Hints:
single chain; alpha+beta; GMP Synthetase, Chain A, domain 3; three-stranded mixed beta sheet; 22% strand; elongated; signal; Transpt-assoc_nodulatn_dom_bac; BON domain-containing protein
Amino acid sequence: MKPTRPLLALFVSLFIGLSACSTSPTDRRVGTVLEDTAISARVKTALAADPDVNAFDVQVETFRGTVLLSGFVDSPENAMRAVQAARQVEGVQEIKSAIVIK
């Protein structure tokens, strides 16, 4: 056996092993998941406190501090109020709105 074959096998094995250790951009630690859950709950509370926004019609998802608002509201003003309410919540880094006007 040529000496280059074992070296090649070693490098291929190392490459495969090290690539399995990498994390994807969608991986989150437990602390991040808990913080995102807490942010979502605080945003829902803020939406429920606004009498013009029906909190049951607006869904909230949070990923690494970015809040996604989706669902339906009666007017563009109510959509803006939902975004403004979410923006006031501690821990919110960014807001993406997919709210649809009925």
